Each structure stands twice: as structure tokens, then as C-alpha cells.
Amino acid sequence: MRADVEDRPTTEHRKQSPARSTSNERIWREVVSWFWVILAFLLIEGTLVQARVIPSGSMENTVLVGDHLIVSRFGYDAGIPFTSWHVPLWHNPKRQQIIVFRAPLPEEGNPDFIKRCIGVPGDHIKIVGGQVFVNDVALKEPYAIHYPDALAGPVENYPPSTIDEMGGLTTEWEQDFSKHVVNGEIVVPPNDYFMMGDNRDNSRDSRFWGFVPRANIIGTPLFIYMSIDAPEDVWQPGNALERFETYASVLIHPTRVRWKRLFRPLWNSQPFTRRDKPLAALCRCWRQHFGR
To answer: What is the dihedral of CA 71, 193, 196, 208, to 10 degrees?
Structure first.
């Protein structure tokens, strides 16, 4: 009898062991699964593509406030998401290409901007009455917007004869400006780029804060995956509640979505025309970008 009593706990313990082992294995599998999900996210976000939303009108009408973009980092930059660590890669911006970059504004935390690359290292740039000349050749810019009453101002006639004609310059650019002007032209230094917004008279760009170092380049937008008509304030950093309310309102008012802009490709120096079929143009852009 005593032996039978002593055997019971051992038997019950043996019955519980498989269940406990199965539970531990399930937890371990869950941990491993989440590890691979997080690793894949870090890899994709840090080296391949990112999602961005446009908060201002400096690139109208190429991209509008509320456009949601897929940005390719492939070949341009690699880094660890949510940290400042990153390393430049082998692709360099091309003239008239749309680029996403960290603005050289350390006092503002180096925010991410999207502009068009106008000048690459070694270029000589001047603007006369809104017409951009690079190395004495006039750029064809069907994407650019100009206000007629601003064509005689210093923003559309750059560089100005004196820096005092410009307003809103950063202190650093105000001090360095004259060093980069040769014979009435801005000369782009090595490893730097000159960026401008397509909405020329409503863009805070290289004319106001100087060149963008190669190390600040993040990538180039591929296409618009969503576009919502909403005020600029909604898309500014820190307005998470307003942004959530905007997304929720789309379910009730789907007309706020700019449906014709969806999947519009952006990786191209020249804008696509209405004759271009969105998916065909997108595939062409993808082959051009990843097939180089």
C-alpha cells in the first residue's frame, strides 16, 4: 500500500510534464516568430523601402499635401530604424531626380525633406527670371510652378547680387554663401547637392540653407500608394490624433481620397503624362530603378 501511495505523485508528475513542455515550446515558437518579424521589418525599413507622407506644398503639383509615398532606400542609404546610425551606399542622386534627405538644419533636428535635385557636384547654377541654368544650359522643367509677381525677386534670380536681398536664410548659409558664388553662379562642392522644390516660390530649399551632403541622402520616391485631401496641419509631426481621425473619416467620406493619384510613379526626372497607364509606368520605373 505504501508503495502505491508513493507512486501516485510520480505518475501525476509524469502526466503533467508533456503539457508543460508543449506550453514552453509554444511560447518559444512565438518568441522566434516575432523575432523574425522584427528582423524583417528592420531589414526592409532600414535598407529597402520606407513609407512617407507629404506634410507641405513645396513640391506641388508633383506631389501634394497628403500624398503617401513608398520611398526606395535601395543603393542610397542603409541604417537602423529609430536611430541616427546609417551609412551611404553606391547610388548617387541624378540631376532633376526627386530625392528624400535629411535637411542640413541641426537646430531643427535635421528633419526629412523631399525636393528635386537641381545640381550635382561640380555644377554651376544660376536662375534668371525663374529659368534655371546648369552649366550654361537651360533646364526643361515642365513640373516647376512660378508665381508671376515673384519672377523679378531674388528667389527667382539666384544667386542675388547681395545676400541682403534674401530673407529667411540660415546663419550658416548666410556666412558661407559668398564662398560658393563664382561669376554670378552657385558652384556645387564635391559630395554635395543643390535641392529645390517644384513649387519654386513656396519652397524652403538650398537657396535658403545651402547644400545637402551626400551622407544626408535617404532615397528616392517610387510611387504614391495613397493620397488624402486634408489640411497641412494633419500631416505635421506630433498630430497623431488628427491623423487618425482623418484616416477614419475616409471610411465615411471616400471622396477625400484622390483616387486618380494612386500608384502614380515618381521615380523619373520628368513627370508622367496622362497618357501613361499607371501600372505600366510604375513597372517601367521599377525596372529603371532596380535594373541599373
So the answer is: 120
3-class secondary structure per residue, the chain? CHHHHHHHHHHHHHHHHHHHHHHHHHHHHHHHHHHHHHHHHHHHHHHHEEEEECCCCCCCCCCCCCEEEEEECCCCEEECCCCCCEEECCCCCCCCCEEEEECCCHHHCCCEEEEEEEECCCCEEEEECCEEEECCEECCCCCCECCHHHCCCHHHCECCCCHHHCCCCCHHHHHHHHHHEECCEEECCCCEEEEECCEHHHCCCHHHHCCEEHHHEEEEEEEEEEEECCCHHHHCCCCHHHHHHHHHHHHHCHHHECHHHCCCECCCCCCCCCCCCHHHHHHHHHHHHHCC
51-92 pLDDT tens trace: 889 999 999 999 999 999 999 988 888 877 767 777 887 899
Dist CA 147 CA 153 (whole Å): 10
Domain chopping of the chain, boundaries? 47-227+262-290, 231-257
Q: What is the pTM for the complete model shown?
A: 0.79
Region of 246 on the Ramachandran plot (φ > 0 left; ψ -120 to 50 alpha; else beta): alpha
Name the CATH topology of 47-227+262-290.
Umud Fragment, subunit A (2.10.109)
Average the pLDDT over 258-263 and give the result. 95
Average pLDDT over all residues of the chain: 84
